[in-house]
């Protein structure tokens, strides 16, 4: 027994209109391409000291984390960054002033009790050079400072 198509359906072709789908797809591609360009992540490589017995994770993160990073550059000289913005200066005396200005610009909209700065220092940076980052935090309007460290999973609390 053969299946027979009713006369009212004969000769009609079902088509799918994909133009609205393509329009939405292009708009999504443009949106995500622009959004990826606007996001500035902090991906500066820092090796913190080993055997940090007192490191703890912070489960209550603020909406905005302000970090100061001190790291070695390719020439072996210490360089500084506030967030993802590197500070390019020739001498260390101007570094504390410039880092403090950048910190104040980031902290100005935060309430006084949440002006916390996280300090990340590469383990190869001597204290004589890292002290300028501490001086910059002291000169800024920050109310608290945290030191970033990697917590070893084998260390007991």
Topology at a glance:
Blueprint: H1 19-38, E1 66-72, E2 78-82, E3 85-87, H2 92-107, E4 116-121, H3 127-139, E5 144-147
Parallel strand pairs: 1-4, 4-5
Antiparallel strand pairs: 1-2, 2-3
Helix pairs in contact: 2-3
Account of the 3D structure:
This protein is α/β, with parallel strands linked by helices and 157 residues long. The chain has two domains: 32 residues; 82 residues, Nucleotidyltransferase, domain 5 (2-Layer Sandwich). The protein has a five-stranded mixed sheet, covered by helices on one side. Helix 2 crosses helix 3. The chain is elongated, with a radius of gyration of 27 Å.
Provide a brief overview of the structure.
This protein is an alpha/beta fold.
Give the total of domains: 2
Give the fraction of residues assigned to helices: 25-40%
Task: Give the strand line-up of the largest sheet.
Answer: 3-2-1-4-5
Q: What about the largest sheet? A: 5 strands, mixed
Structural class: alpha/beta
Observed structural traits:
alpha/beta; Nucleotidyltransferase, domain 5; five-stranded mixed β-sheet; 5 strands; elongated; disordered C terminus
């Amino acid at each position: 027994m053969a299946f027979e198509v009713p006369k009212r359906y004969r000769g009609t072709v079902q088509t799918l209109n994909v133009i609205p789908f393509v329009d939405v797809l292009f708009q999504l591609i443009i949106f995500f391409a622009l959004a990826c360009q606007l996001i500035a992540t902090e991906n500066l490589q820092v090796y913190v000291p080993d055997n940090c017995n007192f490191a703890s994770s912070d489960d209550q993160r603020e909406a905005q984390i302000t970090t100061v990073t001190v790291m070695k550059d390719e020439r072996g000289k210490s360089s500084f960054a506030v967030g993802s913005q590197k500070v390019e200066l020739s001498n260390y005396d101007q570094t504390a002033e410039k880092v403090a200005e950048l910190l104040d610009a980031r902290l100005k909209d935060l309430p006084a009790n949440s002006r916390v700065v996280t300090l990340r220092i590469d383990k190869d940076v001597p204290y004589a050079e890292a002290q300028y980052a501490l001086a910059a935090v002291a000169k800024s309007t920050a109310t608290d400072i945290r030191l970033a460290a990697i917590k070893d999973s084998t260390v007991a609390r």
